[in-house]
Amino acid sequence: MADAVFDPLSNVILIAANRATRFVDPRRFPSGRARLETVGNIVFCFLMSAVSFILIAFSVRDLAERSDHGGVREFHSSAIIAAITSFVTKFGLFLYCSTLRRRYSQVQIVWQDHRNDLFINGLGILTSVGGAKLAWWIDPAGAIVLSLSIAILWCQTAFAEFMLVVGVAASVETHQLITYVSLTHSSAIAGIDTVRVYYSGPRLIVEVDIVMEKTTQLNVAHDISEGLQYKLESLPSIERAYVHVDYETRHKPEHCYIKGL
């Protein structure tokens, strides 16, 4: 029930974040608002973590109130039926989201929610039956262990999403792909000086420094670099690409990383 109460609110946040990224005033947000998706994912993670902490609080209270009592709990078939119904429904949604999670970051988050719900409902059925057939404390103790595990999973997901907002570097394979595409774009490109690929929310920003002969005419260098920019931005998950033209590779890095706040 606690999970069902939080699900509509958290999904409304995901929907609002998704719609906000589609309607953008370029004068106010020149780089778009795609990072709002990641922010919505982080809020979603913390809301679902709150569900786990609520369940832990109820379970601890249950253990404290019944600490002097032995025996087993009363078996309620209606509770088991409700949990089984929820398990089957979540399993269907889990399979459906599995087909889309690689394409949309928010579907990935919803897929993780359904995965966690399968653990909650599946083990919840077992601990409920165990509390009714073996010992009463199995139910609340199992809820505490399960809720802690789910909270840790959501916190790990929130940290991973937070790193995307900060601007963590992309994988080595992605860097290699960008380097290969840039180097083979034109025979006039003599080499690659620098390649930077990093996340800006759910998508990637690419910075490439290509090397050309110093005698290359300006219009030729412009057309080649602009064509490479369009090619890179046509790749999946690339938000923007910036191409800089150099004529040598002995210079210092163009950007200073240490800046006063």
Automatic annotation (TrEMBL):
<feature type="transmembrane region" description="Helical">
    <location>
        <begin position="78"/>
        <end position="97"/>
    </location>
</feature>
<keyword id="KW-0812">Transmembrane</keyword>
<dbReference type="GO" id="GO:0008324">
    <property type="term" value="F:monoatomic cation transmembrane transporter activity"/>
</dbReference>
<keyword id="KW-0813">Transport</keyword>
<dbReference type="InterPro" id="IPR027470">
    <property type="entry name" value="Cation_efflux_CTD"/>
</dbReference>
<keyword id="KW-0472">Membrane</keyword>
<dbReference type="InterPro" id="IPR058533">
    <property type="entry name" value="Cation_efflux_TM"/>
</dbReference>
<feature type="transmembrane region" description="Helical">
    <location>
        <begin position="144"/>
        <end position="170"/>
    </location>
</feature>
<dbReference type="GO" id="GO:0030003">
    <property type="term" value="P:intracellular monoatomic cation homeostasis"/>
</dbReference>
<keyword id="KW-1133">Transmembrane helix</keyword>
<dbReference type="Pfam" id="PF16916">
    <property type="entry name" value="ZT_dimer"/>
</dbReference>
<feature type="domain" description="Cation efflux protein transmembrane">
    <location>
        <begin position="4"/>
        <end position="158"/>
    </location>
</feature>
<dbReference type="InterPro" id="IPR027469">
    <property type="entry name" value="Cation_efflux_TMD_sf"/>
</dbReference>
<feature type="domain" description="Cation efflux protein cytoplasmic">
    <location>
        <begin position="185"/>
        <end position="246"/>
    </location>
</feature>
<dbReference type="InterPro" id="IPR036837">
    <property type="entry name" value="Cation_efflux_CTD_sf"/>
</dbReference>
<feature type="transmembrane region" description="Helical">
    <location>
        <begin position="118"/>
        <end position="138"/>
    </location>
</feature>
<dbReference type="GO" id="GO:0016020">
    <property type="term" value="C:membrane"/>
</dbReference>
<dbReference type="GO" id="GO:0098771">
    <property type="term" value="P:inorganic ion homeostasis"/>
</dbReference>
<dbReference type="Pfam" id="PF01545">
    <property type="entry name" value="Cation_efflux"/>
</dbReference>
<protein>
    <recommendedName>
        <fullName>Cation efflux protein cytoplasmic domain-containing protein</fullName>
    </recommendedName>
</protein>
<feature type="transmembrane region" description="Helical">
    <location>
        <begin position="38"/>
        <end position="58"/>
    </location>
</feature>
<dbReference type="InterPro" id="IPR050291">
    <property type="entry name" value="CDF_Transporter"/>
</dbReference>
